[in-house]
Amino acid sequence: MQPTNLSRRGLLQGAVLTAGAAAFLRTALTPAPARAQMGDMPSGTVHSFSTGGVTVHSYVSPAQTVHVTSHVLELGDELLVCDATMIPPTAAEVAALIASTGKPVHTAYVSHEHPDHWGGVAAVEGVTYKTLPQIREAIAAEAANGEFAEPTSLLQGENLVLGTTEIGGVTVEFRHYEATEAPHIIVAVLPEQKIAIVQDLVYNGVFFAPGVDRQNWIATLEMLRDDPAFETLLVGHGLPTTRGEFHTAIEYLKVMDRVWQDSANPAEFIETMQASFPGYAGEFLLSLAEPYWDR
Predict the structure, then answer these.
(1) 2 within a domain of the structure (yes/no)
(2) 92, part of any domain
(3) Structural domain for 269, as ranges
(4) What's the structural domain count of the chain?
(5) Is 1 among the domain residues?
(6) Where is the Metallo-beta-lactamase domain (predicted)?
(7) CB of 80 closer than 8 Å to CB of 106
(8) How far apart are the C-alpha atoms of 47 and 233, rounded to whole Å?
(9) pTM, whole model, 2 decimals?
(10) How far apart are CA 154 and CA 26, in angstroms?
(11) Which member of 5, 94, 243, 250 has the lowest number of beta carbons within 10 Å of its beta carbon?
(12) What DSSP designation does 146 have?
């Protein structure tokens, strides 16, 4: 199969940046090495910026763990934490980031069922994660196979309450979307700062997992693309970005769906996706085509 003809111009068509968003991409992110012992694995990086009285720290794990992210937001004198990454060494770096702020965690939550986001929960000591009952049930079933340390603080944690609340004097809205990249996913929106923590609804420069329902995933992204509540996206894999990435993600998913339908087997799908998106990282995520293939 020939690679899908997809140019960067085509991906970004319609993704016009506001002056503020362009300035964010140029100057706001301040990368720094994470501070924890990683053994033979390279350290992840922390990318920080401040807006509207909120300071955002996005921890991006190294390539070996597919650049999965965890976000630590300083809201006044309290923290909002999203996800724990996949393995103890990267989760230890998230824990070190949390400790470096000197602030208590008000709410920590796991955004969805996939273990690259909850596998490190046990290594984030002293933090109890919340999530939705449907997500917790799926995590409990997967944790039972013993591949990851049992996320006791999550399995015994409280349910996350959806809707609007206040943390450290900052308004936060928790939303729930179904049947996209995962069966269930939590999105946190800070409307005053125009920030959305979308996690695996959007990947930035990293191959997407096959997803539960790509057509519904696209429809959800189209709805979010037209939502004026946010300009900055904190994603599940890769660097924070702007709302223009919704367009890129939609086009990527359309290509992925066509390649999926046209491929004779997972190997052909993987080869074509790699040829179509040569600059993308996280090739391991393409291997998930195998268990998804007959669904």
Answers:
(1) no
(2) yes
(3) 8-292
(4) 1
(5) no
(6) 67-237
(7) yes
(8) 13
(9) 0.88
(10) 37
(11) 5
(12) S
